[in-house]
């Protein structure tokens, strides 16, 4: 199966109002170009340096999503162009993103990453921290940040009930958050192995890598 075939298979499966982020981390430019030629315009990367190199090389109508953990000192490299930052997992990071957004005279869209998995290696806010950030954005907002939603990663397991529970929990937080903050309209959950369950649970943005580009060799 080609990259174009993989993309069309997925697009035929998912509802029209679910956005597909093609996760191209570690993959060469040619693979991204093949997806682009097939019509894909949203790409997800988890390293700022790698994303910036690809942004410099590829067509400028691509929307680049940062899906990985973000180091504060690297925000400046993506601030001129990044379309959506999925991995905001601490309040302090918003201060830096806001500062770099001001320097670039733009508003940067962000998702708040919530820790829903059992693995402690996965990043994310707990419910209290999430509420604190939302409260702050309501009372004393960062002028150059738009919080547009939540993101989460389920436990890597074959137990689909476990995954369903985690997605349902994130959806419930999303419902509460979006009732408080008008800008919230995006729920980023679901990857190659679990996007079906994620969409059933209410996801409207999935991040799919290996099912489009094949397995990654690190
Ligand atoms: C790598 C990655 C994905 C894509 O994973 P696949 O299983 O290859 O689809 C999605 N989200 C995040 C945050 C990732 O790091």
Task: Write up what this structure looks like.
The protein is built from 9 helices and 8 strands. With 218 residues, it is of the alpha/beta class. The protein is globular, with a radius of gyration of 17 Å. It has an 8-stranded parallel β-sheet. Helix 6 (127-139) links the parallel strand 5 and strand 6. The mean pLDDT is 96. Bound molecules: pyridoxal-5'-phosphate. The site of pyridoxal-5'-phosphate has 14 residues, from strand 8 and helix 9.
Would you summarize the structure shown here?
This protein has nine helices and eight strands. It has helices spanning 3-13, 29-37, 48-57, 75-78, 91-103, 127-139, 160-180, 195-200, 210-213, and strands spanning 19-23, 42-45, 63-66, 84-88, 108-114, 145-152, 186-189, 205-208. The protein has an eight-stranded parallel beta sheet.
What labels describe this entry?
single chain, 218 residues, alpha/beta, TIM Barrel, eight-stranded parallel beta sheet, 9 helices, 8 strands, globular, binds pyridoxal-5'-phosphate
List the helices and strands and how they pair.
Layout: H1 3-13, E1 19-23, H2 29-37, E2 42-45, H3 48-57, E3 63-66, H4 75-78, E4 84-88, H5 91-103, E5 108-114, H6 127-139, E6 145-152, H7 160-180, E7 186-189, H8 195-200, E8 205-208, H9 210-213
Parallel strand pairs: 1-2, 1-8, 2-3, 3-4, 4-5, 5-6, 6-7
The protein binds pyridoxal-5'-phosphate (PLP).
